[in-house]
Amino acid sequence: MERSLEEVQRLFDNERQVKNQMGATNREWTEKITNLERQLSEANDKLKIELDGNIRLKKQHQDIQKNCSQLERSYNDMHDKYQELIAIKLKFEKDINTQQANIDQEKSAKYMALDKIQELEGIDIYLFSWPVFLM
Question: Is pLDDT of 128 > 90?
Fold first, then answer.
């Protein structure tokens, strides 16, 4: 019986030692799990911050694209108006050149007419300056 008691004591000590080891292992695993849960929580917080930033950047990108589209339409409208103004300017320049050519032609015709008048008046004066005895 004594031997049995010693054996029971030894078994009891072994069981206590195993339980102590399991408790230490459980504490280690619990600590590791707690650390991993904390890291997961921190990673989730960082992910939420990143996602919020991503959403904000996507909205900014959409706003910038919208502004770019508006600016592009405005540019195209302005370019079309510019082209219209260039066409009007060219037409005015052509009209001015045509009118200037007409004015130059009229001046030339006027000077030619004046020259002819002066020439004819010179002939008339020459005729009247002949001596009267010819008459």
Answer: no
